[in-house]
Amino acid sequence: MNIHEYQAREILESYGVAVPRAGVASTPDEARKLAEGFGGRAVVKAQVHAGGRGKAGGVKLVSSPDEAAEAAAGMLGKNLITHQTRSEGVPVRKVMVAELTDIADELYVAITMDADAKAPMVMASSEGGMDIEEVAANTPDKIVRVAADPLIGLSPYHARDIAMKIGVPIDLVRPAATLITNLARVFQEKDASLVEINPLVVTTDGKVMALDAKIGFEDDALFRHPEIAALEDPEQNDALEQKAHDAGLAYVKLDGGRVGCMVNGAGLAMATMDITKTAGADPANFLDVGGGAAEDKIAEAFEIIVSDSDVEAILVNLFGGILRCDVAARGIVMGANNTGTQMPLVVAMRGTNAEEGLQILADAGLNVTTVGDLGEAATALTQVLSGGSN
Amino acid sequence: MNIHEYQAREILESYGVAVPRAGVASTPDEARKLAEGFGGRAVVKAQVHAGGRGKAGGVKLVSSPDEAAEAAAGMLGKNLITHQTRSEGVPVRKVMVAELTDIADELYVAITMDADAKAPMVMASSEGGMDIEEVAANTPDKIVRVAADPLIGLSPYHARDIAMKIGVPIDLVRPAATLITNLARVFQEKDASLVEINPLVVTTDGKVMALDAKIGFEDDALFRHPEIAALEDPEQNDALEQKAHDAGLAYVKLDGGRVGCMVNGAGLAMATMDITKTAGADPANFLDVGGGAAEDKIAEAFEIIVSDSDVEAILVNLFGGILRCDVAARGIVMGANNTGTQMPLVVAMRGTNAEEGLQILADAGLNVTTVGDLGEAATALTQVLSGGSN
Amino acid sequence: MGILIDENTRLLVQGLGRDGSFQASRCRAYGTNMVAGVHPRRGGTMFEDEVPIFETVADAVAATGANVGLIFVPASGAADAIIEQVDAGLPLVVCISEGVPVQDMVTTLAYIEDKPTRLLGPNCPGLIRPSTKGKIGIIPGNILSEGRVGVVSRSGTLTYEAVVQLTELGIGQSTCVGIGGDPLHGTTFVDVLEMFENDDETDAIVMIGEIGGTKEQQAAEYIKNHVTKPVVGAIVGQTAPPGKRMGHAGAIITGKAALASEKIRILEEAGVHVAESPAVIGAKMAEVLGR
Amino acid sequence: MGILIDENTRLLVQGLGRDGSFQASRCRAYGTNMVAGVHPRRGGTMFEDEVPIFETVADAVAATGANVGLIFVPASGAADAIIEQVDAGLPLVVCISEGVPVQDMVTTLAYIEDKPTRLLGPNCPGLIRPSTKGKIGIIPGNILSEGRVGVVSRSGTLTYEAVVQLTELGIGQSTCVGIGGDPLHGTTFVDVLEMFENDDETDAIVMIGEIGGTKEQQAAEYIKNHVTKPVVGAIVGQTAPPGKRMGHAGAIITGKAALASEKIRILEEAGVHVAESPAVIGAKMAEVLGR
User: Fold this and answer.
1) Between B223, B266, B350, which is nearest D246 by CB?
2) Which residue of A has its CA nearest to C250?
3) From the list A152, A156, A157, which residue is nearest D107 (CB)?
């Protein structure tokens, strides 16, 4: 789960991390007042769950309260389109207005989970304010990587070492190390998946400060952080993905595909997507209905696939286990009836009550091509997409 | 460092531990109002840093607001003397007024640091509400002991196991286990030296609750818990011990002794106390002036010893290392001048600048017997105390 | 010989809720010797009238000599259940639970590192060995056939797909192991590859990987240096976009190494016979075995 | 042979504040080969014009081959310094710092348990070995004389007292080790007793304990079963009241086992020659050695 920058800033502040003075505004007038409080000079930043805001016009430096209001007016209520958003962009409902900081140096520090180290990994660099992936690709030696100990966490001496290696001035190594240690505490105590400060700045008056902050959280651990879960902003998500998420389905919309996929199991779902490709088409989505889905959940999954306007055909691949194929078939029929779709379906059903399920689909009069395995599915899909039929 | 029960109750509540509704009162009228809020029936408890309050009249059950006020009036502003307090007792400035709880069963749970396990140790028993040391002595099999893992803490399954073993009803094992886990979190996160719930009660309406709570904290870790350090109540401590503590001296008043001891190093201080015993007298105090004490700190230590009215003679045993004996001697002279004492001193000084130190004492005209080692000190002390003189 | 389980396997199942009970029942039906259940509130009762249920794992192990633990408890309690089973000394612990917080696994994996317990999972389908009628987990027993191909996979249902393909071509399986879809898990590809290499009941290996992480790279390295038996590989997720999690917590493309194409390239360099699509895993194995 | 340090000892000192610098200087003056200092803000400078100072322990070890670490940093950073030295691979780490939070030591002791580093302390005076002019800590060198009695103690200044008594009676010391006054510490009485028992430069042992904990009991058990050399013991705190901390964090009577009288009884049962008072430790050793 992602949160907005202003929310991340508040979490960091509660952990003693130095951040610029800032406030959040929902109207141009609120933005004006915030800028006034900072003496007029400020930065106005659109609050969206996406990077690349600067180039997209979502970050504006202003030198008067009026300019702040104007900048806010230009963002609020509009959609911001960056290279990280979906094509229509994401809505801006709030802007953050922050005091300007006189920057002496821009650094980078982030913490992610590292599967090989089996522990949180601190990545830091002297090259702040840039796209860190480019830095990693072009000048990998400018990235310092230090794993926290899985049981005792990031040692203060490691934090100090990182601060020295990325070029924090010697007199500021101690506060910088404390800041890095506190980021690691946020990561661990809040079950974060990412804590990224870009840039971490050294100011001209000798402070170390998190100028921009991005924090993501592990969905699986939100149950123990209700205060974090409450920060979710569903509007920032793709509408179909949000609907699927609310229904407890693992669904990912894929741009430009025309074959909807409905599968149980993540691995089999990826395999099914790959199979559509061999049939000459792109998958429109990833969808795992999970192990023990009931009829109405299957129906909801089917409706989500159908309501994707890119989808022309649906590939159903279910392996009955805990999931019973007859139950799944009834769900599909329910979903088809609810949506009134006549879309062609290619269906592979194996395992528990597979024949019963296929019979239910046949009896319902849907446009179904039944196949026995993945290979046949690819062939059938090619036929369906080229206008052939069963 | 110790805190009051009402403060411990608040800490536990902030960790989600169920506690009775309660408030703290500084006047009988406040106590009356609190009791009103609980419908009249309440318990009024004197807030002092000592156990044994019940037998000493510091805990009263009341059945009306007026009775609550009366009970509070009988405690507030007085000294409470229990078997754990010094002889004059400790002042009661506040009382806690708590709602009455209908108790089905009284249990015991405490967490301390265990040097052998090198980890926090949970001790629990089905025999709550009693003196746990008696339980341990008479029926040791009624005490369950489980060490937390030093790195991952107390596992929930251990907490569940403890709850089952001390007889928590099966339906309440889950909340009881959560409570025990939370106690372990308090212990670890707040650097406690003791978290003791006696009794932990099962109520007749099926709740598990901490009815009385005692929490002590590691002095060495208070620097990272300013919110805990702020809870200190110096009035509860022995006045001389508090004065020494404020001066950064390790000092413990010993009842009934007449030989004041001034030593550097804890081990040597204990040895010096033991030596007074072989000289036929009891030590009046433990005092370690520490490694690098300056002149004025030595003077303050000397003054604290002298201001103990039990003290008739002083045994000084200093081993110059980081501490220089000449500095110590000047501090003693300063302290003697400040207090104008003529008390006899037996002085052993060895190590750095010892001769210079002894000369300074001699020049100051104090009543000094100089000795070369601990054995001579014992002999000299016997002489001094029997009225002999140098 | 076989791997992980054998005739002496004595199964303990922790977490006998709806799904856990259903699956425990299936394990028994397959022929697995389940000797104990664990459920704090049902201690003293029996599972299916035949298997005693205990309040704690330690009690269950002491009373029954259980030597394999299987976990179905909810994700929030899964790490604690693993630690309870490890502390009770079970040599093999299989955790099916999906959605275990990754920080819990950081702690748990570090805790068990120097313990004598092997962990399989979490978020895995477990394992099954037709020759001894041993099933520890949720892999449907009816799709397997006894034989000499070992299967190891990060995925559940995709494993079933591969097994069905093998079985339909008359190629039986020695043991089938799902290592799970989480980024932090116990037993790895390398661990299982080593076991299959040393297993006299296994002649060839199917290894099914997916996007995300670098575990397939580590497997390739190991295969190149240590595995003499033929390995058929498959990597799914070629059509997955970067930065999006494909159901499995670990299935996310975060860099070049996480790409399916990259993993396929490295596996092929290591001598693995990579199936052109997930539909032809069985066919590829038939080809490799010369059938 | 000797224990803990030898001719090849290369000392690194971390924490060169006022006290640390003073004591490092004393170690050098005694003859110890100090090869590196560590101070984050003074990297690149020299200590006493001769010893290079580094920003980190790892850098210092890499550059100088230091093999013993000595810590004088403030108590709040002491555990981190221990871990930094352990991570840098120093085989012996001596921590003088007093007042280290006990929870920090819980974590630190567990962390180093399976590491190859031996920790002495914290809150200890360190060790000194006259024969090799090696001093790692704060024991005053001028009170020692070279000889064949090993001294081990929980206390600092009381150790000096015992050493002075020995020296005045003409009884020299092989190595003198302070294990520290904290309840949770690295090297224990048993560890040092084992070293002295196996040390061909040590003929007899002085062991000085105090109230609190059960470490003396463990020592007694070890002496009874493993130590053939004569041991003179002393336990201080006979006049300490229960429940009150006598300066040392570990010196508190919390139950019968923590009492001085109980410890004396058990040591005597184990064959230890317990001095009647701390004033006669040297005399007791003279008696035992037949001088």
Assistant:
1) B266
2) A115
3) A152
Q: Are residues C98 and C161 in the same domain?
A: no
Which letter does DSSP use for residue B148 in this model?
P
State the DSSP code for A333: H
> What does DSSP assign to residue D278?
G
Residue in D159, D237, D277 nearest the CB of B275 = D277
Q: What pLDDT score does B138 carry?
A: 86
- Which chain D positions have a beta carbon within 8 Å of A152's beta carbon? 83, 107, 111
Domain at D156, CATH number: 3.40.50.261
For residue B123, give the CATH number of its domain. Answer: 3.30.470.20
Q: What is the pLDDT along chain B (390 residues), one digit of tens a residue?
A: 999 999 999 999 999 999 999 999 999 999 999 999 999 999 999 999 988 898 889 999 999 999 999 999 999 999 999 888 878 889 999 999 999 999 999 999 999 999 999 999 999 999 988 778 788 888 888 999 999 999 999 999 999 999 999 999 999 999 999 999 999 999 999 999 999 999 999 999 999 999 999 999 999 999 999 999 999 998 888 888 888 888 888 899 888 899 999 999 899 999 999 999 888 889 999 999 987 778 999 999 999 999 998 999 999 999 887 788 999 999 999 999 999 988 999 999 988 888 999 999 999 988 999 998 888 888 899 888 887 544
Is D134 inside a domain boundary? Answer: no
Chain D residues with CB under 8 Å of B240 CB are none
Regarding pTM above 0.95, the answer is no
Q: What is the mean pLDDT of residues D177-197?
A: 96
The total number of residues written for chain C in this structure: 291
- Examine the domain organization and report whether B89 and B14 are in the same domain: no
The CATH number assigned to the domain holding D90 equals 3.40.50.720
Separation of alpha carbons A377 and A346, rounded Å:
7
Judgement on whether residues B266 and B370 belong to the same structural domain of the protein = yes
Structure ipTM: 0.91
**Do both C81 and C164 map to the same domain?**
no
Residues in chain D: 291
Q: Are D150 and D196 in contact (CB under 8 A)?
A: yes
Model confidence pLDDT, tens digit, residues B160-212: 999 999 999 999 999 999 999 999 999 999 999 999 999 999 999 999 999 99
Identify whether residues B206 and B178 lie together within a single domain: yes
The residue among A216, A237, A258 that closes a domain is A237
For residue A68, what are the domain limits? 21-100
d(CA B16, CA B28): 30
Q: Are residues C152 and C265 in the same domain?
A: yes
B106 and B26 part of one domain: no
Does residue C61 belong to any structural domain of this protein? yes
Q: Rounded to an integer, what distance in angstroms lies between the CA atom of residue C75 and that of residue C69?
A: 16
Residues 6+ apart with CB under 8 A from A325: A318, A349, A350, A351, A352, A353, A354, A356, A357, A358
The answer to whether C110 contacts A151, with C-beta atoms less than 8 Å apart, is: yes
Interface check A171 vs D, CB under 8 A: yes
Could you list the residue range(s) of the whole structural domain that residue C195 is in? Answer: 139-288
Same domain, D106 and D184: no
C-chain residues near B171 (CB < 8 A): 41
* C-alpha to C-alpha distances, D76 to A160, A257, D97, D99, nearest whole angstrom: 15, 58, 9, 8
For strand B313-320 and strand B259-263, is the pairing parallel, antiparallel, or unpaired?
parallel
Judged by DSSP in three states, A375 sits in: helix
Whether C244 sits inside 8 A of A286 (CB atoms) is yes
Same domain, A259 and A367: yes
**3-state class of D69 per DSSP?**
strand
Q: Using alpha carbons, list the distances in angstroms from residue A361 to A321, A325, A338, A390.
A: 19, 10, 15, 14
Q: Which helix (DSSP H) or strand (DSSP E) does residue A156 occupy?
A: helix A156-165
For the question of residue B196 being annotated catalytic, the response is yes
Mean pLDDT for chain D overall = 94
